[in-house]
Amino acid sequence: MTPRFRPIGLALTIAFAHPALAADPQPNPAPDGGGTVQLAPVTVSASALAVGSDQMSTPVSVLEGEELVRRRAATLGETLAAEPGIGATHFGAGASRPVIRGMDGARVKVLADGAEIMDASTISPDHAVALEPLLSERIEVLRGPSALAYGGGAIGGVVNVLDNRIPTAIPERGVEGSVELRGSTAAREAAGAFQITAGAGSFAFHAEGLKRDARDYRVGDGWDEGSRVDGSYNQTETGSLGLSWIGERGYLGVAWTRQRNEYGLPGHSHELEDCHTHGDHLHCEGHDDDDDDHDHDHDHEHGGVPYVDLKSDRWDLRGEYREPFAGFARLRLRASHTDYRHDEIEGDEVATRFRSKASDGRIELEHLPLAGWRGVIGLQGTRRDFSALGEEAYVPQTLTRRHGLFLVEEYRLGDWRFEAGLRHERQRIDVDSAARDRSHHGNSVSVGAVWNFAPQYAAALSLSRAQRLPTAEELYADGLHMATRTLERGNPDLDAETSRNIDLSLKKLAGATTFGVSVFHNRVADFIYAHTLDEHEGLQLIEYAQRDAVFTGVEGQVRQRLNPVFGLTLFGDYVRARLDAGGGDRDLPRIPARRAGLRLDAHWQGWEGEVEVYRVGRQRRVAEFESSTPGYNMVNVGVSYAGRLDSVPWLFYLKASNLTDKLAYNHTSFIKDAAPLMGRSLTAGVKVTF
């Protein structure tokens, strides 16, 4: 009989768990080899005040070092999917964004060292994030609307990916870098990456690159459609060049990055292309079952499955200057410009072309303590010129301008740390169609407190009111989108949605047992969602609408050090998302199922290993026209060895995912039935640092 567990039971089980730890960070044993361990706090770059992870009023995860090397995947969503409270949208192998506490899309902001990633991934889940995890040095995840410095719209959370594109210091030996090679079996993937930084005097130069070739991946045992997902391949090439001037009090640098992706669109169908609407209903003509579109080998090289050809050119400008003038400790600058093109190709022709030219800039000033308050004031502005042309140009050309002013302050008193943030945002969208232009504004505020009530114990409370402004797609969408099998209607009358969130955490940061728990309740007034009006053979007619919604959940993990070698971690998460009562469907679509698991880790000399077993429950709480998703058990095993060769550090890692070859479906995916999760896969890699 399949095991089951209840949400309340899960909440009680992990009532002493810790979501705020950095992806099960490894403790440092006490010098005497005793039972006391200490978790070193990590400075969180995405926090405007650059405080440690142990002092954040909302949960934060930090992936870095060997842990990040072992967990990195081809997409950002899959890289973070194992973190408590985080899932992934999963659109085949080429596109996957993080889902944080049941929220995705524009409610989860993705940053590159504090600058917004200006791609098209928030428009649709089949659009990839223009960012390469294999070249990242650290990934920070802030849950909930805690990072007002980056926009009130990030009511789900913020993902900040740190890289080395722009050097901030001269290498001690003049030159430093790394080379990494890896391969996996399920997708027959081969990937390689390099980074090198060289400098002398006041200047440093950085170059990096990556190439990945992954074929259609194999799913778990027992899928009726075969053994591999047609069109699930992913080919990526990325390169970056950066140059910095570095002085005693700061730096200023620029980098250029080009990324090319080609990946398939599994589940894409033309059977319903002639469907249209009669009022709020779908009307579809008959189809020829012998259409040649359904009688091919689905090899992308032969024009079977539609695929995406993505090209992104991005310029980044980053700088920091300490003590710029009296009363201020630091001036920080971030700016970027992205020229993004995304072609959806069927056969030898471009069916739809998405173009986006976008700029993002922000400047921050950190002032010295004033009456005990230390804080940051900043300005941010973004501009995006977006267009879609072709068969599925369901969004008209739009020009979006957004400006924000923010202030974040902290005050420390004994064992207490208090934090407050305020942001005002204005947005204007000009549309090249008969629809009217729209302007919106929003105000967001947050307050939080952290109480270190005992050595290495901390309790944190955060309250926030954040407003998210509607996107151009939500306002003006009008047309068929076969990748997600939807016919979409925008709503130009949408207003800003308002989130009122409370987050309570408890942490223990040292000792043989380290733990934490976070519970949250997020009530969103005028929540914008895709309301399904009608459905025909899997095609849904959706219209963006507003209605109050409630998100409630718990997430966490606890680690028990068993002896100097072994440790055991219990982790889990659960989120309940529903619309307020008042007719229509109550449950929101594509909400992650509950999850709980155990992880046994081992550390001995240069060796590290882990065995992870977790259960994802069946998702029965579904929206109208949405199907439930069966639960599954997952087993993962990994081992790594860190050594030196003539003083050159190197790391070898080996991991087996889905060891039992379980056929599993991701409920958050639009194409869960057409693209199940990957089956048993063995990944091996080596990284040399010099």
From TrEMBL:
It comes from the Bacteria. One of its GO terms (cellular component) is cell outer membrane. The keyword Membrane applies. GO terms for molecular function: siderophore uptake transmembrane transporter activity. It holds the Pfam family TonB_dep_Rec_b-barrel. The keyword Cell cycle does not apply. This is TonB-dependent receptor. It comes from Pseudothauera rhizosphaerae.
